[in-house]
Amino acid sequence: AVGMPMGLWTIGVLLVVIAMTGCSAASPRWAIAIHGGAGAIKKGEAPELEPRYREAMRRVLDEGKKRLAAGEAALDVSEALVRMLEDDELFNAGRGAVLTERGEVELDAAIMDGATMQAGAVTGVQTVRHPITLARRVMERTPHVLLIGQGAEAFADEAGVERVANEWFITPRRREQLERELKRRAREKASAQTTSASTDARFGTVGVVALDRSGRLAAATSTGGMTGKRPGRVGDAPLIGSGTYANGTAAVSCTGTGEQFIRHAVASGVAARIELAGENVEMAAGHFVFRVLNTGDGGLIAVDRQGRIAMPYSSAGMYRAAADSAGRDEVRIWEE
Ligand code: ASP
C-alpha cells in the first residue's frame, strides 16, 4: 500500500464511504418525539415536581425506543405511549386533566396514520379512560373521523373501550388550578382589564409523533384542554390538521392555546411547508411557532420521513423528549 498511487487511495476511500452510506440508507431508521405540553412549570418554581416530570417523560421515551427498535408500527407506538401519559396524573390528559369552569373534565384526542391517511378523533368525552384508544377505534371501526360527547361515549361501550366516572379523572392539583384561574378572572373583571388567556391555564397536553422502521409516520394527541374552559369548548388537539396531523411527509402534534392552532391550521401547515416550500422540518415548524403564532402560544413536535425531529416552542417551557436510531436521546423542559 506504501507505493499505492494517490488516485487509487482516493478511489478506495470513496468506495468505503459509498458502502457505508449505502448500508445506513438501507438499514431501517426510526425516530420519536413526545411532548407533555407547553405551559410547563417555570424553572425553579416547583422543584419537587421537576424530577417527577423528567422521570415520567424518560419512562415513556424508553418504552417508545424499545418498541420502535423492535419494529413496531408508529401508529401502535403512538397510541401506547399516549395511553401511558393519559394514566399519569402529572399530565393534562386522561386522569389529571384540567377542569372546565364547571369543575368537570372534558377530554379531546386524535390519532392519525400518515401511511394510510386514516384518522380518528373524539371530543368532549367525560367518561372514557383512554380517549386516544377511542379515537383509534373511531378511525378503524367507523366510517367517520370525529365523534363528540354522548355519541362518542355510546360508541366506547360498543367498541369495548373502558369507561370511568368523571370524578375519577379529577385531582386536587387541578381543582386548585381551577380555583386560581376563576379568581384571576374575577380580579380581571373587577379591574376592567381585557381578558387574555392565562398562561397558567394550560398544563401538559400530551402528544407523540413517530417514524417506524417501515417508514410509516403517525401522530397522536390527547388533552383535557384549558383550565376553566367553557363547557363544550373544543381545542385543536382533536381537529385533524390543527393540533394533530400525519401524512407521508411529516407527523405533527401541537400544544398551547388551541384556538390559535386552529386558526392557522398549524399541524397540516408544517407538512405542507415541507412539501411545497421545500423547507426542512425545523424551518417549517419554526415558521409557525415563531412567525405565525404569538409568543407564548405554545409549541409543537414534528418528525419527517427521514426521521428528523423539530420541537420548537415559545412558551416558558415545554415538556419534551426525543430519540432516534442514530443515538439521539433527550428529555427536556426548558432551554438547558
Ligand atoms: N392545545 C390544548 C387545547 O387548546 C391545550 C394545551 O396544549 O395545553 O385544548
How would you describe what is shown here?
There is one protein chain. With 336 residues, the protein is of the alpha+beta class. Helices cover 37% and strands 21% of the residues. The chain contains nine helices and twelve strands. The strands form two sheets. An eight-stranded mixed β-sheet has the order 4-3-2-6-5-1-11-12. Strands 7-8-9-10 form a four-stranded antiparallel β-sheet. A hairpin with a 4-residue loop joins strand 2 (107-113) and strand 3. The chain is globular. The termini are far apart. The model has no long low-confidence stretch (mean pLDDT 92).
Topology (elements, then pairings):
Blueprint lengths: L5 H21 L4 E8 L11 H20 L4 H14 L19 E7 L4 E8 L5 H11 L4 E3 H11 L12 H19 L15 E6 L5 E7 L20 E3 L3 E7 L1 H6 L2 H11 L4 H12 L5 E7 L4 E2 L7 E7 L4 E4 L4
Helix pairs in contact: 2-3, 3-4, 4-5, 8-9
The protein binds aspartic acid (ASP).
Aspartic acid (ASP) binds next to β1 and β8.
Overall SS class:
alpha+beta
Distance between the termini: 49 Å
The counted number of beta strands is: 12
Helix count? 9
Order of helices and strands: HEHHEEHEHHEEEEHHHEEEE
Morphology call: globular
Name the ligand types: aspartic acid
Mean pLDDT: 92
Low-confidence stretches are none
Percent range of helical residues: 25-40%
Largest sheet: 8 strands, mixed
Strand content: 15-25%
Name the assembly state: single chain
- Please tell me how large the radius of gyration is: 21 Å
Spatially, the strands of the biggest sheet line up as: 4-3-2-6-5-1-11-12
